[in-house]
Structures are given as structure tokens and as C-alpha cells.
# Entry
Amino acid sequence: MDALINLILVTIALIGATVFIYREVRAGVVSFLTGLHVFLNVCIALGTLLKVIFEALAQLYAELFETVDHILRPKKKPVASRSLTVQLPPRKAELLLRFIMKPRDQEVMLGDMQEIFLHMLHEYGPKTARRWYIWQTTRSVWAVVAARIAKWGVLTALGETIRRIISS
# Structure
């Protein structure tokens, strides 16, 4: 934490130096090119310091989040004796995906979703895993339907334009 405070103080000092250089250039004490050169060097130093500060803050945040997450929500231990029917994704949702998706995309999409489903099943339990699978199915169906509507909307507009041109 002390290193972070020191970095912030150095950043403030560099900003102060930049303001000082700007005043010197405006007063005519230093040439414009010299002031620009010094200003660019200060900007580079400032960028490097800000990068270090943000990396330190990200590390502090990750450590804090990991500690709080571990204290407040300990992970559920996987239950060894779950029936085979619970370990399968919801059948109706899977059939809906198979029906609406192109055959070339079915196996990849369904395989990825089943893999994530099994991971969620062991991490969060069957209820959450099934809810996630159904939600993803709903989102996927909506995306496919919206794409088809957009495609047919464009084709319909194109057809009407062609019809108007021909009838004119």
C-alpha cells in the first residue's frame, strides 16, 4: 500500500512539473521545442506510472475480491451421487436448439453448452445449471429468429424495390 501512495505522489509531482514547464514556455524562459521535449518525456513517465498504479490497484482488487468471495460464499462441494438424468441438459431445450440451428453448427454449439452445463452442475448444482441452460437456449433462439427476420426483411424490401422498378 505504501508503494501505491508513493506512486500517486510521484504522479502528482510529474503533473506539477508539467504545469511548471508550461508556464516557463509561456513566459519565454525556455524555447518551445525544449519545453515540448520535456513535456513529452513527462507524459511518457506519467503513462508508465499510471500503468503501474492501475496494475497495483487491479492486483489489490483481485486479492480483496478473492478473500471476500471465499469468506462470504464458500464453494459447494460436488455431490458424488447424482443420478444420470440430472447430469443431462434439459431435453426440450436441446431439441429446440437442434431444430432451430443449422446442422453444421449444431454439434459445436451443443457440445460447448453441454460442457459448460456439466461444469455449472458440479459448481452450483442442478437447479442453477438447468436454469442457465434454458436461459442460453432462449437467448440463442432469439438471436437466430432475429437474424432470420432481419434477413427476410431485407429480402422483402429488395423484392418490393425490384417489383416497383419492373412495374414502372
